[in-house]
Hints:
By secondary structure, this protein is mostly helical. It is built from 16 helices and no strands. α2 packs antiparallel against α15 and α3 packs antiparallel against α4.
Amino acid sequence: xxxxxRFFHNVMPDFVRETETEAGGDSLMHLLAMPYSSLSHQLKxxxxxxxxxxxxxxxxxxxxxxxxxxxxxxxLGVAFLLFRSFQVTKNANDLSLCLQIVKACDAASASxxxxxxxxxxxxVCSLGAAAAKLSGEEDLLNYYLAQFRQIRLASDxxxxxxxxxxxxxxxxxxxxxxxxxxTLSSTNIRQVTQEIIKEGRSMAKNGSSPLMFEWxxxxxxxxxxxxxxxxxxxxxxxxxxxxxxxxxxxxxxxIKNRFPSGNYPANEEDRRRDxxxxxxxxxxxxxxxxxxxxxxxxxxxxxxAGVAAAEVVWKRGLIKRVxxxxxxxxxxxxxxxLYRATGRSEYLYRAKAFASFLxxxxxxxxxxxxxxxxxxxxxxxxxxxxxxxxxxxxVDPTQARFPGYEL
Length: 407
């Protein structure tokens, strides 16, 4: 597969001024020139249609059976989409259906050994707690919190986001955000954080990065399994000064060793293949981490590197996939993060361009087989569930957050 086969050539202008007048005959150009209020109205309508489709296909037609409970590719992702929909529309039906689905996922995940938000039991219990809190169901809230507190971390657990310690840590932070601060004690969070830092330091011993981690024998760099994801979550917890320096140093090491194009290797062992422009591997997920670092540490270097990574996403990020993990929907979040950090309208325009591309052409490209709909076509991370989530997030871009990654 050549590089050009991976993505659609981005022929959209670098910037289009919004205008009340009709733009020419091209439907995509028309969306790009449309005032934001009108476009967000269209995106919202499309999001709610997509949400209905996702619910019918994954919940209605299955007889409410849960085969895959995860947020990533399974039924919990549908509950998370409904949770977001409730936040945007305040439609109480979304919240009650969210809770109903979480309940089924709770039963399906009872014996799971996976402990993370995106792929494990922690996702079920923390989303259940957050939704119960929103709907004022005290007993249910206490039930999910009790279930969450029973989760045990194995000593040989990896540290990455999808299956490892930081994926558990993120679930703790999610509960503290949506239920109440200190619902899960900072002592517990501190303990897990120390464990992560300790392992990162010991694996980095002879390298030039202060922290390094492995997942299945590979030293990954990206958001899903590697350095970017681990650093991202560590920046959300209280770090000691020397730990914060190690996080900064690790990100600077990555910046120094990026490709000349501004993209990033998938892992330490593969420093020559500049091909992947995904949230999970490559510039998009790393850009989100760099933008966050610029806000946490206030250093220009991180923002500049984030901007450079976003250029890669603009040029090569219209990949031939719809999803959030490795698709156009997820890549749009890079521009939303930069817009929140800088307030610059060109980043909002770029997020709008990726969303408009999906709104205008997504269904056509998927039905013609020119764009991959994911192995789980209705799921949050691989399928149109992710597109629906992005469209909901575009309604108020200042509140947009990459699901399961940005708090």
